Amino acid sequence: MSVAIITGSAGLIGSEATKFFAAEGFDVVGVDNDMRARFFGAEASTQWNRQRLQAQLGDRYKHEEIDIRDEDAVASLFERYQNDIALVLHTAAQPSHDWAARDPKTDFGVNANGTLNLLEATRQHAPEAVFIFTSTNKVYGDAPNRLPLVEQTTRWEINASHEYVDGIPEDFSIDQSMHSLFGASKVAADVLVQEYGRYFDMRTACFRGGCLTGPSHSGTQLHGFLAYLMKCTVTGTPYTVFGYNGKQVRDNIHSADLISAFYAFFQNPKSAAVYNIGGGRYSNCSMIEAIGLCEQITGRPMDWSYSESNRAGDHIWWISSLARFRADYPDWKLKYDVPEILQEIYDANVERWVEATVV
Ligand SMILES: NC(=O)c1ccc[n+]([C@@H]2O[C@H](COP(=O)([O-])OP(=O)(O)OC[C@H]3O[C@@H](n4cnc5c(N)ncnc54)[C@H](O)[C@@H]3O)[C@@H](O)[C@H]2O)c1
């Protein structure tokens, strides 16, 4: 038996990974307590996705309603499967930097202590398992805002002659910048994951994501930008763009492309690996470019307004350098760009969103 323990299994990345690894023949044990609904309200609940997984995957999927902060529950789950555990994919999190400031202790408890519980349970019961952690580009804080950026018609861009023109690499400083409390709790987790790799010689990886996206995102105002933008356009919900003239740039990676990167790592793992991962130069957009695309796809104008003040610690321009990951895994390729991602989000959700508006 090959078991994959996937935390946050009803969330965007966790649910797509659950389907992927079940199809690869793993017995997937999913850990998710729907805390996303506690963070962001009922509209962001991932319960619908959990039910869908249970219906689609049957015996291949076992759901555990465990809170990753519960050390004893996590330990006894790992004790049950021991060395059958081939993979731990840790995606459960408090994922929003704005939300973290409302309740820093809960944020740190979930993101940092929860990660420590999982690392320790892996070390005690399944030390040979591959441990993959979904970190974030927020570990670099707002230091990218100090790069030489140029305002163009629809976006901010890095000076064309700068060494980071193809994206920001992993050796960029994570120190002495504004991270948001979310960024700080993720840094703690990221460094712990590296340390368990280095110190205990475990096979761990931190994937520092740009914007992760896809049709299964339960998009909400504080998290899940492309999915929420599309939802607002479809349902006529007003949307506010915060700061930077709406020209802030994000790179966006489809969940399928991210999971194929996880799989490449799983098949040929390393110790204490750190990778920036995102859409890179291939898949990125500014806010106003994304709004234009949503309007084009839905055929309706979006009701959006602009607020001068940017979110604290928000990036003006972020594009991930994919060079390190590509050097280690040369067969991996991105398949989706932003227009394709938005079209798929639209196709997969339009009926559900319209129905919910009518009711
Ligand atoms: N989505 C992005 O743009 C993005 C960008 C960079 C990094 N990340 C990271 O990637 C990971 C996955 O992101 P996502 O977009 O799939 O998030 P998501 O919110 O869709 O999924 C996370 C899941 O974890 C569950 N969860 C939260 N706290 C829990 C707890 N204490 N115990 C058990 N389950 C819990 C939630 O209910 C949710 O279903 C997160 O670690 C996030 O920080 C996301």
From TrEMBL:
It comes from the Bacteria. Keywords: Isomerase. One of its GO terms (molecular function) is CDP-abequose epimerase activity. The keyword Isomerase applies. Its EC number is 5.1.3.10. InterPro entries: Epimerase_deHydtase, NAD(P)-bd_dom_sf. It is an enzyme of class 5 (isomerase). It holds the Pfam family Epimerase. Transmembrane segments: none annotated. Residues 5-278 form the NAD-dependent epimerase/dehydratase domain. The keyword DNA-binding does not apply. Belongs to the NAD(P)-dependent epimerase/dehydratase family. This is CDP-paratose 2-epimerase. The gene is rfbE.
